[in-house]
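Worked problem 6 (solution included).
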Amino acid sequence: MQIALSQPFSSAEQRKSMAPFAAQLLAQGYVVLRQVVPPMLIHHCVEELEGRFQQTPFCEGVFYGGLTKRFGCVLRHSHTAAQLVQHPLVLAITETVLGPYCDTIQLNLSQGIEIHPDAPAQFPHRDQDMWSGPKGEIEYLVNVMWPFTDYTPENGSTVIWPSSHRWSPDAMPDQYDPGMSLSLDPGDVLLFLGSTLHNGGANTSREVRRGMIVSYSLGWLKSFENQFLAYPPDVARNFDPGLAALIGYRQHRPNLGNYEGQSPAILLGDDVPSHLAATDALRPDHQAMVDAYISNVAKAA
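Solution. The predicted structure is:
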């Protein structure tokens, strides 16, 4: 289903009204939002990444594709990309979908992608398979595709198998089910679940298809892209706090991802103490159990 939006959601009241989009994402495995950012913003992002696209060599391996270019660390090379990674409507939908399974979400990857003419279709796959946990019980991630050029069935647009997130986790389509190739314009955005079967289509045109894939995962998982190598403290301290937190400069309660027992956000300051006091960062349910235990011990004393 394709949804037309006149402008991005920004206020708290508007964010609440994104529920129908999250519901459609969960129901059909994907949702397309039309013109959620001005095409000029996409143009600026492409300008900033032009050198990376040109200088990046073609991939090696049949999965990535020998006529495809991919590069990460996008936030290091484009200031504008942060507006896409932190788009409030996209984040609100993602947090609604993943929130039941984690304390906080995290940036899983940001990756520029360029599919060249004659590139074959990619192997159909589910991105949740990068983790070996049980499937069909929870959602591990949400993928977000931002087209930098027109996406068409001819130039290798993303192909989705609707409702495939409800199939058996290892089920594949039969030879008579080619999936649905989505037509997208710069300014549109495609969201699909990590459990949704998809691939990059074959590029049978003479055009290069460009875009950026951003994905968000449960905050307690190991991310696809090593965010701390992509954005070490000397880079991340130039990000706004919300973006730094999204790439991992915060703790996932209880106490996961800490630095010396504190939030790694402390590394973004100008003067990091050489000795730190380890400090609890507990979920409310854990805090309640601790408090109840202490109370019972006190009563028994």
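Discussion: Residues 2-225 form a domain with the Jelly Rolls fold (CATH 2.60.120.620).
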